[in-house]
Write a structure and sequence with these properties.
Layout lengths: L1 H10 L7 H8 L3 H13 L3 E5 L3 E6 L6 H5 L11 E7 L2 H10 L7 E7 L17 E8 L9 H19 L4 E3 L3 E4 L2 E13 L2 E12 L12 H4 L6 H22 L2 H10 L6 E5 L4 E9 L5 E5 L4 E4 L3 E4 L2
Parallel strand pairs: 3-4
Antiparallel strand pairs: 1-2, 4-5, 5-9, 6-7, 7-8, 8-9, 10-11, 10-14, 11-12, 12-13
């Protein structure tokens, strides 16, 4: 019922809707309608009431509620189903459980906060409540397990483009899964997969974006600090889903060629000298390219080209 009321008020945000008309359209008595409006106010919706004019929606809560994320979201696959929670242990854990229960491709799981947010290599991801975007997607691409890293590249390109569009910042990608603004990490990506033989059964794509500083590590960057432009988390979340949908559908239809080209345009390290920390050694060389499966190609001083599939990397110059 609340969703029906909000749909009408959203559609007519430029004017008041009379209590009589609103109550009639949602089949409620005026006193019951007033109780629903009061409840929406408690949830953060700013709804003006003028006795002779009715109700008007003038402000939205600073929450990534499923109903707000989906409002006028024009996507085909990503975000077809949106779930939102206040605080969870981890959106990836929640999405993984949903995927095993048969959640469709494109299911998006948002949370206002995470108690046990996770990053790559067992690291934690600090997730202060309502200070960032914490999102996990259920994806079911028709690819082999060797190609799964391409989904990380897809997510990185989508995140960088969304931040550029909404925040006006020159976001760049640090291979394989970090987004940098002014050389500070503002976003991380974690992909987890379940396979069936050599085929991917499903992928959980986790994205964490630092919007405001609160209990974050000193070296972490935030979008609010780096931009002078006012923006909402909701606008950024919607824009992100739009870009993810565009790249995912293109990847499904045409493969990785366009994605890799787009990724290269956004790379922070292309042509730069880098130090790469592998599991059992450290190498230095020039970051030259990425291959068809998303591995970073580093040209060592010896002339040998190493294809790096998983590592931490820093730019030297």
């Amino acid at each position: 019922m609340d969703e029906k009321i909000l749909k009408i008020l959203r559609t007519h945000r430029d004017k008041f809707t009379s209590a009589e008309e609103l109550a009639r359209r949602v089949s409620l008595s005026k006193p019951t309608l007033a109780r629903h409006i009061s409840k929406l106010g408690d949830e953060g919706y700013d709804i003006q009431h003028q006795p002779h004019l009715g109700y008007k929606l003038v402000g939205l809560p600073d929450r990534l509620a499923a109903s707000e994320v989906k409002w006028q979201l024009n996507t085909k696959i990503i975000g077809r189903k949106v779930l939102s929670y206040n605080v969870v242990d981890s959106t990836n854990t929640t999405a993984f459980s949903l995927a095993r229960q048969g959640a469709p491709c494109g299911t998006a799981v948002f949370a206002e906060g995470q108690k046990k947010g996770r990053g790559r290599r067992g690291r934690g991801w600090v997730s202060p409540t309502s200070k960032g975007i914490y999102l996990s997607l259920v994806l079911r691409p028709h690819i082999s397990s060797n190609e799964a890293s391409l989904i990380t590249l897809l997510a990185a390109a989508s995140c960088a483009e969304s931040i550029r569009s909404v925040c006006g910042l020159k976001a760049l990608i640090r291979w394989p899964n970090d987004i940098l603004v002014n050389n500070k990490k503002v976003c991380g990506i974690l992909t987890e997969i379940e396979t069936e033989g050599n085929r991917v059964k499903f992928i959980i794509l986790g994205i964490g974006i630092n919007v405001e500083r609160s209990k974050l590590p000193p070296e972490a960057g935030t979008l609010r600090k780096e931009t002078k432009r006012d923006f909402s988390r909701l606008d950024l979340a919607r824009e992100l889903l739009q870009h993810l949908d565009k790249h995912y559908r293109n990847f499904e239809r045409r493969g990785a060629e366009d994605l890799i080209r787009e990724w290269k345009n956004l790379s922070a390290f292309s042509g730069r000298r880098v130090k790469v920390f592998l599991a059992h050694k450290t190498i230095e060389g020039q970051a030259q390219d990425i291959d068809d499966e998303g591995a970073l190609i580093v040209r060592l001083d010896s002339g040998f080209r190493e294809h790096v599939t998983s590592a931490d990397i820093v730019k030297i110059r």
